[in-house]
Amino acid sequence: MPRPRKRDYETLRRELIDAGGRLLADEGPAALSTRRVAQETGTSTTAVYSLFGDKAGLVREMFLEGFDRLTAAFAAAPRTDDPVADLRALGDAYRANARANPHLYELMFGRPVPEFRPDAEVGERIRPTFDALIAACARCVASGDFADADPDDIAQQLNAMAHGLSSLELRGALGTEQEANAHWARAFASLFKGLA
Q1: What integer pLDDT is reported at residue 3 of this predicted model?
Q2: Domain containing residue 81: CATH number
Q3: What's the pLDDT tens digit per position in 125-142?
Q4: Looking at beta carbons, which pairs linking 26-30 to residues 24 or more positions away fall under 8 Å?
Q5: Positive or negative CA dihedral for 148, 151, 152, 155?
Q6: Confidence (pLDDT) at 1
Q7: Which residues of the chain, if any, have pLDDT below 70?
Q8: Domain for residue 1, yes or no?
């Protein structure tokens, strides 16, 4: 049997991560096993062990993949001469990423696998997502669009608001898509008005 090319490993890695995320989101932590993840992707447990080491390694990579996708979403957000519009675009990117990856979202921001705790190395790897938000807030302060305040504090407020809205939306608590859009728009408008 020929050895898979590198891109085949990357495809399999992503499929295993997504399968693990779906099992965790749909059936809870008890369903998340290397055997079930392998079955969901039509591969062997050997592939899971080869790519992730063990179940703990799989969970760690699922967590990191969620943040890698968020980092990519932030990087794709427009950067213009309007720092407030750019900050709003990061909010939109956050929301879009949560909606595209609901199976990883709870693992990123909750504790569905109680034994998993991000270590210092993981913390360093996910830090750029929050740093991007702080930098965008700093631009709004420097431009005078927001009152002179600590960009880190503003980023914490925005992060909390976006997380709350995303969590509610993923659970269907914001109503239809049109209603959810209105909730997001009002929340950002109110917060930005207060920050100004």
Answers
A1: 53
A2: 1.10.357.10
A3: 999 999 999 999 999 999
A4: 26/103, 28/112, 29/112, 29/113, 29/114
A5: positive
A6: 44
A7: 1-7
A8: no
| Structure tokens, 95 | 């929301």
What is residue 7's predicted lDDT score, i.e. its pLDDT? 44
Enter the pTM of the model.
Answer: 0.90
Residue of 127, 104, 105, 148 whose CA lies nearest to 16: 104
144 falls within a domain: yes
Beta strands in 28-152 (DSSP E): none
Alpha-carbon gap, residue 34 to 135, rounded angstroms? 39
> Phi first, then psi: what are they for 79, rounded to 5°?
-125, 115
**Tally of domains in the chain:** 1
Is 79 part of any domain?
yes
Range of the domain at 180: 56-195
In a domain, 42, yes or no: no
Residue 55: both structure tokens together: 């179940």
Q: Which residue bears the tokens 């959810």?
A: 180
Give residue 143's identity as a one-letter amino acid code: S
Please name which of 26, 57, 53, 61 lies closest in space to residue 40, comparing C-alpha atoms. Answer: 26
Structural tokens at position 138: 């700093």
Closest C-alpha among 194, 123, 106, 118 to residue 157? 194
